[in-house]
Design goal:
This protein is mainly α and 339 residues long. The chain is built from 16 helices and 4 strands.
């Protein structure tokens, strides 16, 4: 049986051969000495000797040097393979963010390339401090948060955006608020476009196990990033999370990274909550509606229609404020899932 040869296949040795050793073997085979080679090449005997011992570079030695560096890198990576046990590699692969590779060293290289770093140490430095501080409070996996944030960053980098314009973004939020009455898949492209035209990249990234984060905000050069998950599935939480993140962009600085979970309570988070609550359901109208005491399906639906928002948002607010039980009117709160 004759096998075809793949001429595009490149051999990558996991060892390095000193060019001088090859030369030594060759002159021995030819019955030559180092003196003979020096005379024939017109090079000093000392130079020939140094080349054979690997102490001096020669033409075409670049491959050897690269191979040596690759070997050293592999040795270093082999000593860091235990770090892979801390990263949710299996779930990152399942989300198709990276490829599964049989070689542990190459799998580590794939993970590092995904994070855009050369070593685990650099990743520990580059991952925002807030991740490790807040992950303890919300009992979340910090590396799952880092991976989720990184995927959001990669997608946001590819979103064409106009320079950030605060006034334009506020106008866009009013338009987006009205869109809450429609199905999310139907308005998603327009939702993203309104954000991008205002200088905000909106990305919705599939969650990882033990993530426990439903939103995040950060800045990339001249554009802001709102990153959402479908952690809690209900559409009202998705919309509240979006307007909460929008508040961070409008009210707070560009240097901080905000990571959202209901258990996190800070002044900036409280401000963002209040902004989202009042923007979606103005306080005066909400209090007036609650005080009437009619919280049945028809009343809630009519109130939402008058406000031009989804009825699920009203239901979610009433449940949050203990005006309704969490098992009431949930049919007005569509559930979301990944296709």
């Amino acid at each position: 049986m004759i096998m075809a040869i793949d001429r595009n296949l490149k051999f990558k040795p996991n060892y390095a051969v000193v060019p001088g050793l090859t030369i030594s073997e060759m002159i021995d085979h030819l019955g030559m000495s180092q003196v003979d080679l020096a005379e024939r090449t017109g090079r000093p005997l000392k130079t020939i000797n140094n080349i054979i011992q690997g102490k001096q570079a020669i033409t075409f030695e670049k491959n050897y040097r690269e191979s040596l560096a690759r070997t050293e890198e592999n040795k270093k990576l082999e000593s860091e393979l235990n770090w892979l046990d801390e990263i949710p590699v299996r779930h990152i692969i399942a989300n198709e963010w990276i490829k599964q590779i049989p070689s542990p060293v190459e799998q580590l290289q794939e993970v590092l390339a995904f994070f855009g770093v050369a070593s685990p140490k650099e990743l520990s430095v580059s991952c925002p401090d807030v991740v490790f501080r807040q992950s303890k409070k919300i009992k979340s996996d910090p590396w799952a948060i880092c991976a989720w944030l990184r995927m959001g960053e990669l997608q946001a980098q590819a979103v064409p955006c106009q320079p950030y314009d605060k006034s334009k973004f506020k106008e866009a939020l009013s338009e987006i608020r009205k869109m809450t009455r429609k199905s999310v898949p139907d308005i998603l492209d327009n939702w993203k476009k309104l954000c991008a035209d205002s200088g905000v990249a909106l990305v919705i990234i599939k969650e990882l196990p033990n993530l426990k984060v439903n939103g995040a905000t950060k800045w990339l050069k001249d554009k802001a990033v709102i990153q959402l998950s479908l952690l809690y599935k209900f559409v009202d939480i998705l919309w509240f999370s979006f307007f909460h993140e929008a508040a961070h962009i409008i009210l707070h600085g560009k240097k901080d990274v905000f990571i959202e979970n209901a258990k996190l309570k800070t002044d900036s988070e409280a401000e963002a909550d209040q902004f989202a609550e009042d923007f979606l359901i103005p306080r005066v109208e909400y209090n007036s509606f609650v005080n009437r005491g009619l919280l049945d399906r028809a009343s809630v639906s009519k109130f939402a229609e008058d406000l031009e928002i989804a009825p699920g948002i009203v239901v979610g607010r009433l449940q949050h404020d203990n005006k309704l039980d969490y098992n009431q009117l949930n049919d007005l709160k569509p559930r979301l899932c990944w296709r």
